[in-house]
Design goal:
Strand order of the largest sheet of chain A: 6-7-8-3-9-10
Distance between the termini of chain A: 21 Å
CATH topology of chain B: MetI-like fold
Structural class of chain B: mainly alpha
Number of strands of chain B: 0
Oligomer: heterodimer
Strand content of chain A: 25-35%
Shape of chain A: globular
Largest sheet of chain B: none
Shape of chain B: globular
CATH topology of the largest domain in chain A: Rossmann fold
Number of helices of chain A: 11
CATH architecture of the largest domain in chain A: 3-Layer(aba) Sandwich
Number of strands of chain A: 19
Order of helices and strands of chain A: EEEHEEHEHHHEHEHEEHHEEEEEEEEHEH
Number of helices of chain B: 12
Structural class of chain A: alpha+beta
Helix content of chain A: 10-25%
CATH superfamily of chain B: MetI-like
Largest interface: A-B, 31 and 23 residues
Radius of gyration of chain A: 22 Å
CATH class of chain B: Mainly Alpha
Number of domains of chain A: 2
Distance between the termini of chain B: 54 Å
CATH superfamily of the largest domain in chain A: P-loop containing nucleotide triphosphate hydrolases
CATH class of the largest domain in chain A: Alpha Beta
């Protein structure tokens, strides 16, 4: 498993990207950050599309960009899935797939044409032209086409950004299969935390052209100083749990998280499967005692780990421990004062069941953490 | 109406066909470079390529005559290499026509390549296609309408050539006497009947070709997403 090493710099009149970062040769790494932070530029540097980049890019011991060396994009073996699919308009879906397959004839094939077609369910689309496909279908063909080029690493530039919520939901499961089914490491550019939570194994967070944080998904998301990178509205944490029960009459799933049991709108998976749940800080309320007669379904016993009031604002972020996993609560500073919240206090965290994402993908127990 | 002398017509069609082929080969790399370069020389090259559009054919013809004559470097080398002159010969006409019709090949192609853009070429490179492979397998099919327009315009424009041919080629039957010159000669000698015949052929031919192109473009629009 070759590691991708980057230490690069790209300068524009109004923007500079300076990133030194290693990307492991397995799993899905989220390249995460707000629009304009340089995610796509970094991806283009890795692919070799950004000729003005200086510095160093290497895959294993193969140098792609050095002081005096530059390896052309077509020789790097980098697969690239573009936000706008970029299928060739003069070819059918099958033609697009075969275009890649033919040109990869020399590379070691760990999987066949039919494997890709099966996993992505592409056969029904074969004879359609690029313009006769829906956005989601186009993106599926584009992903298949990239896989058939037998890339050594796959770069995906917000592949779901142009799709509506339903189409996103259709493609997410396909994406989550890629690294395990085809053994290709993925760098996945996105500014959607939902995609990070469901798909990715680790995060490299960018802000203003620099790496702001990097690490496992759960640990990186709970870092309070990354609120700006995540966006205040979406900032939160990730919990991992096991589906303990399904209530099909009420359309609810009950998920074991540590010792606590969380009720969420029904997840279409079997009991016993592991899932990740994203909880936004603004969806968490705090109480000193278990309240009665409330519609909120989830009341979790929690311990306050830290209270961080925000300067010049009405708000404070409270980091909580629930059975070893962490929650963030965004409350007013006034509430912190009234409740007298301090590290070490025990509280009850309230989370509405409706605040969870509609979709959760199965995770392997080990990879779930 | 007497039957027109078809010799000049055949010569004209041959000249136009060969010129178009030559320009496909020469014009494609120029158009490609113009479409994708970031060089500061781009406007200079664009201006030079567009010169034949605005220069009077006599001016162009005059310079060509000077540069192709056996006394010039190029003309002299050609004479010693082949034993014949470039001026007042069919080969000279091809050289002159290629320069005269250059913008009609380069400009539509440049527009077509700009329409294709870097985007599909990056996609092709990410699928392991070499730049040359990507040119033939992606850029060319996507620019096919540009090629059709450029080919037809170049061919038709060469057919209609008059001034430059007269200056460089003169009026030698079977070698440099093209249709437009034949018609000019017939009109000068008040042989309107013969002029009518050839003129009508040219008119019908040109209209049919253009109609064919526009119909094709309508029926087979190339969608680019």
């Amino acid at each position: 498993m070759d590691t991708l090493t980057t230490d690069v710099r790209v300068s524009y009149p109004d923007f500079t990207l300076a990133v030194a970062q290693e990307f492991p040769g397995e799993g899905i790494t989220a390249l995460f950050g707000p629009s304009g932070c340089g995610k796509s530029t970094l991806l283009r540097v890795i692919a070799g599309f950004e000729r003005s980049a200086s510095g160093h890019v290497a895959f294993g011991d193969e140098v792609w960009l050095g002081e005096r060396s530059f390896v052309s994009p077509h020789l790097r073996g980098v697969g690239y899935v573009f936000q706008d699919a970029r299928l060739f308009p003069h070819l059918t879906a099958r033609g697009n797939l075969e275009y890649a397959h033919k040109r990869a004839a020399g590379s070691r094939a760990r999987y066949s044409f039919d494997d890709v077609v099966d996993v992505l369910d592409l056969a029904p689309l074969f004879e359609r032209g690029a313009t006769q496909l829906s956005g989601g279908e186009r993106q599926r063909v584009a992903i298949g086409r990239t896989l058939l080029a037998r890339p050594r690493i796959m770069l995906m530039d917000e592949p779901l950004a142009a799709l509506d919520t339903r189409r996103k939901g259709e493609i997410l499961p396909y994406l989550s299969h890629l690294p395990r089914a085809f053994g290709v490491p993925v760098i996945y550019v996105t500014h959607a935390l939902e995609e990070v939570t469901q798909l990715c194994d680790r995060i490299v967070a960018l802000a203003d052209g620099r790496v702001a944080a990097t690490g496992g998904v759960a640990e990186t998301l709970e870092r309070l100083d990354l609120t700006d990178v995540q966006g205040r509205f979406e900032a939160g944490t990730m919990l991992t749990g096991r589906i303990a029960a399904q209530d099909s009459s009420l359309y609810l799933s009950r998920v074991d998280v540590g010792g606590a049991r969380i009720e969420v709108p029904q997840i279409g998976l079997d009991v016993g499967q592991y899932v990740r749940l994203r909880v936004r800080a603004r969806d968490v309320s705090l109480a000193l005692r278990r309240p009665e007669g409330m519609s909120v379904r989830n009341m979790l016993d929690a311990t306050v780990l830290r209270v961080d009031p925000e300067a010049d604002s009405a708000f404070a972020e409270v980091l909580l421990d629930i059975g070893g996993q962490h929650l963030r609560a965004r409350v007013t500073r006034a509430a912190v004062a009234d409740l007298g919240l301090m590290a070490g206090h025990t509280v009850v965290a309230l989370v509405k069941a409706v605040s969870f994402d509609r979709q959760a993908l199965p995770r392997e127990p080990k990879a779930a953490e | 109406m007497e039957l027109p002398d078809l010799g000049p017509l055949w010569l004209t069609v041959r000249l136009a066909a060969i010129t178009t082929l030559v320009l496909l080969v020469i014009g494609t790399p120029i158009a490609w470079w113009l479409a994708f370069t970031r060089s500061r020389m781009k406007p200079v090259v664009e201006a030079v390529t567009a010169l034949p559009l605005v220069l009077p054919p006599t001016v162009l013809g005059f310079y060509l005559l000077v540069f192709l004559s056996p006394n010039s470097l190029l003309g002299g080398w050609w004479l010693s290499a082949t034993g014949s002159t470039l001026t007042f010969s069919f080969t000279g006409l091809i050289v002159a026509s290629a320069i005269y019709s250059l913008p009609f090949m380069v400009q539509p192609l440049q527009g077509a390549f700009e329409g294709v853009g870097r985007v599909p070429l990056e996609a092709a490179a990410s699928l392991r296609a070499t730049p040359l492979d990507a040119f033939f397998s992606v850029a060319t099919p996507m620019a096919i309408r540009g090629y059709l327009t450029a080919t037809v315009l170049t061919f038709a424009h060469t057919i209609g050539e008059f001034g430059v041919v007269l200056m460089v080629g003169g009026n030698i039957p079977g070698r440099t006497k093209v249709v437009s010159i034949q018609i000019y000669e017939e009109v000068e000698t008040i042989d309107y009947a013969a002029a009518h015949g050839l003129a009508a052929i040219l008119l019908v031919f040109s209209f049919s070709v253009l109609l064919g192109v526009y119909t094709f473009n309508r029926r087979f629009p190339v969608h680019v997403v």
